[in-house]
Write a structure and sequence with these properties.
Elements (H helix, E strand, L loop, with lengths): L4 E5 L17 H11 L10 E3 L1 H7 L3 E6 L11 H16 L8 H4 L2 H7 L3 E5 L3 H12 L3 E6 L5 H8 L4 E4 L4 H15 L2 E2 L10 H23 L7 E5 L4 H14 L5 E7 L4 H8 L27 H8 L2 E5 L1 H12 L17 H11 L4 H6 L7 E6 L6 H8 L6
Parallel strand pairs: 3-11, 4-5, 4-7, 5-6, 8-9, 8-11, 9-10
Antiparallel strand pairs: 1-10, 2-3
Helix pairs in contact: 1-9, 3-6, 3-9, 6-7, 9-10, 10-12, 13-14
Amino acid sequence: MHELIKYQFNTRRKKYGTGAALSLLNGNVGREVLAFHKKLPNYAVTPLHNLAHLSRRLGLGSIHIKDESWRFGLNAFKGLGGSYAVGKYLADKLQCDINSLSFAALNAPEIKEKIKDCVFVTATDGNHGRGVAWAAEQLGLKAVVYMPKGSSLIRAENIRHHGAECTITDLNYDDAVRLAHRMAQTKGWVLLQDTAWTGYEEIPTWIMQGYMTLAVEAYEQLAETNSPLPTHLILQAGVGSFAGSVMGYFVEKMQENIPNIIVVEPHQANCLYQSAVMNDGQPHCVTGDMATIMAGLACGEPNIISWPIIRDNTSCFISADDCLAAKGMRIAAAPRPGTDTPFISGESGAIGVGLLYELMNNMHYQDLANRLQLDASAHVLLISTEGDTSPDIYEDIVWNGRSA
């Protein structure tokens, strides 16, 4: 029988302070990153929705979800990482402190003269590339973006809208990353990639740090509304940069009260799940086309920076069927009138909602839900990382019932 959910509990989870170092993701770094983002055009705190009706329906204490469809007008969270990495790179180039830097200052004529020849290159399924293109656009700089085969034409056009050169290749995501790397080396461009490998670690670290803004905001929003801190974090993963960033921040903040952390990936691109199954402490890759509706998670090679954080802090790794992402999108879009706030969540953003609903409603997974301590005392935090970044796909799923 085809399983909607495959899972692997983590036997390598560490107690706070005994695992991978988290100094690059602590509260001080988070505040520095947030201060940088507050100086950017269109910065605003994104909503944190309290899904009180859904939590009662599922028998949980509370469910909160951070809605990143509102981020910078880009319909996804990825601009946080791209913009901060651009800022850090240019601060280093100009030999100044990131804390004294803003995009407004970088547009001063004498500064623009020093950075005018910078060209940023990256590979993306859509959201990261758009974030890099947007950041470059703010400074009048050039961006070159490569997308894997099968990428949404609408997502490509959204990237070009910011002035970037964008090409849909005939490669899978990981090979598109290798292409971007080769082009950077050949042409002297700056590779702004949201994953790391041996010898390429500084910029991916900056990108992970950039994502911390949404975690800092969520933590503060929970406090401001007198809501309980999460007992459970459900984080979706591609290469693991986002998941590692958010869990790293919350582990550092909550220390001895670390939440149960669930990392979820699509079946077709479940490299972190497969790494957990291998259980040798090392990251393992998956290959092939990785054809999933969760395009933002269609990555087969773990980020070597985030992997130790994920390995040492995740409670359970889950590989999920595409239909759960589709279900999550419909739940987000159509709560019963007068109950929860409806919101638009894309394929990669809604998998946490769909997974949680399945765990709590499908008797086949009751034992798993019990082992995860998903009960009336559970307070679950989710992140909807994107909105309808490809409206045609969104409508096909939400309106027409597509599930794969």
